[in-house]
Amino acid sequence: MTENILARNNVRVFGEGSRTMVFAHGFGCDQHMWRWVSSAFENDFRVVLFDYVGSGKSDRRAYSAERYGSLGGYAQDLLDVCAALEVKDAVFVGHSVSGMIGALASIREPERFSDLIMVCPSPRYINDAPNYVGGFERAEIEGLLDMMEQNYLGWASFLAPVVMKNADRPELAQELEDSFCSTDPKTARLFAEVTFFSDNRADLPRVKTPSLIIQCSDDAIAPVDVGEYLFQHLAGSSLRIIAATGHCPHLSHPEETVAVIQEYLAARPQVEIEKPFW
């Protein structure tokens, strides 16, 4: 069973530390997106990278629209990987929708995680007037989903530079566009629907794991208001608004992203691991 999960989710483990750090990618991405950040922690952590089923080099035969029809299915992928590797008290680092996926996983099995580090997270992407700004009107999301269905390559070409920003470095948007295009369009559309129609605001009070919210100064997908909302509703959370722009600072501004994570962890109490699980 363990080998099946590790193959299913294309799990890669490296590093020298006694504690574990698990990186989880966002919608339309894969574990390769973490390469500039994860390598900075390999001397101090056992680093775990994986792909959600349907993404990257995961076993796409394992994809089920029923299981992955909610973020709970992706949270179960994360927990399955943690169980297969006997992970306990790990630092979880999740990009975008993986911030909420990690939060859901921590509610189910809090012993797995000592900290949640959320990079550009959002509990809801759609505005809910008058008290919540998510960044999009529902009609805008529906329009993007329609575009995915009618012209997937055109959708990828349109959305990638909007997400990435940093127009002076077009290679970044190209990498994201290539990642979008490497995913089965039908699977990608279902993941997009699950992501952008999710509403996890009611789950936030149930999260007991300390968290760091990293929000970019200019992000079309998760504006600063979203980070401030999370900070107000997640007990034991810290908020850092960084100078980086766009929705993927781990690609566009990895040094700043690494520095903020390191600063946060240096200020946190150290978790004692009685004996390694590997």
Automatic annotation (TrEMBL):
Pfam families named among the record's database cross-references: Abhydrolase_6 (PF12697)
Chain coiled-coil ranges: none
InterPro entries per the UniProt record, alphabetical: AB_hydrolase_1, AB_hydrolase_fold
SUPFAM superfamilies in the record: alpha/beta-Hydrolases (SSF53474)
Similarity field: Belongs to the AB hydrolase superfamily.
PANTHER family: ESTERASE-RELATED
Protein's name in the database: Sigma factor SigB regulation protein RsbQ
